[in-house]
């Protein structure tokens, strides 16, 4: 299944598919409030912090958005009505660059087949005339989702320390260069990482570039490196999934995700952080 779905395609299936779950995973302080004011018709809300991550007090252990335990995520999927047969369409208010891509990755890693991210997010849907309202939507729970391991490749901090793989840092250039750091304690980047900010995946209107365009961009970046030897990270393992989504959309496969990302690395290896400002 194509990992990206266009608004028109969603409009065509929204009234036909019986087992369709549309999910708003916009993130931020006002996300729940914004959802309650306005969301796509029949969309349920999923929270990044409480449902798609197991956040610890100490970010040096797993970063700002560690993956939840498999059994917890299995239960969450059941509670929001997702079974093995459900067609899941995910969107957010950041063109899929926020938690939409993360939820997509998690479902794919759980072995789910029918999952797509809405191209352009809620903004594009509204512009295209997709019905939006503030109606309350109650999920219809099903049994816990049956999976026992993450099926997409992951990498831990210890492997990052000794790897020869290509490491792609998808944060904005100023954060990568150590010029600024709005979230984590120090600025800089993992030694050897190359910078390819995730907005490079998008057109000016927030929709994804075509698979052909994405493939051309990433083929140049990878320089012959096989996808099995590529690691993608960001600040906390969320926007990195946007780049993994783009690579999948381009037909290049799924690289390894470093979930801990800069939020974990910078709290453990700050003396090894190239360009780091530790003052």
UniProtKB/TrEMBL annotation:
Transmembrane segments: none annotated. CDD domains: TST_Repeat_1, TST_Repeat_2. It holds the Pfam family Rhodanese. PANTHER family: SULFURTRANSFERASE, THIOSULFATE SULFERTANSFERASE. It comes from Flavobacterium sediminis. SUPFAM superfamilies: Rhodanese/Cell cycle control phosphatase (SSF52821). Residues 16-134, 161-274 form the Rhodanese domain. This is Sulfurtransferase. Keywords: Repeat, Transferase. The keyword Transmembrane helix does not apply. Coiled coil: none annotated. The keyword Membrane does not apply. One of its GO terms (molecular function) is thiosulfate-cyanide sulfurtransferase activity.
């Amino acid at each position: 299944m194509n990992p990206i779905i266009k608004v028109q395609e969603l409009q065509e299936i929204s009234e036909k598919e019986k087992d369709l779950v549309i999910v708003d995973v916009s993130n931020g302080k006002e996300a729940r409030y914004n959802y309650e004011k306005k969301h796509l018709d029949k969309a349920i809300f999923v929270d990044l912090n409480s449902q798609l991550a197991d956040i610890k007090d100490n970010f040096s252990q797993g970063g700002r958005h560690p993956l939840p335990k498999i059994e917890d995520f299995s239960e969450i999927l059941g509670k929001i009505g997702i079974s093995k047969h459900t067609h899941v369409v995910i969107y957010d208010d950041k063109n899929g660059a926020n938690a939409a891509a993360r939820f997509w990755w998690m479902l794919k890693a759980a072995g789910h087949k029918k999952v797509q991210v809405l191209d352009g997010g809620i903004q594009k849907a509204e512009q295209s005339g997709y019905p939006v309202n503030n109606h309350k939507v109650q999920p219809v729970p099903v049994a816990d989702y049956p999976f026992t391991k993450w099926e997409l490749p992951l990498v831990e901090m210890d492997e990052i320390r000794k790897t020869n793989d290509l490491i792609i840092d998808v944060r904005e250039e100023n954060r990568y260069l150590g010029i600024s750091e709005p979230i984590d304690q120090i600025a800089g980047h993992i030694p050897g990482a190359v910078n390819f900010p995730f907005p490079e995946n998008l057109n000016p209107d927030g929709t994804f570039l075509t698979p052909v365009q994405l493939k051309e961009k990433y083929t140049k970046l990878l320089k012959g490196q096989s996808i099995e030897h590529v690691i993608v990270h960001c600040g906390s393992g969320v926007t990195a999934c946007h780049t993994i989504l783009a690579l999948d959309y381009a037909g290049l496969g799924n690289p390894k995700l470093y979930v801990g990302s800069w939020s974990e690395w910078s709290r453990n290896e700050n003396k090894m952080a190239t360009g780091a400002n530790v003052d």
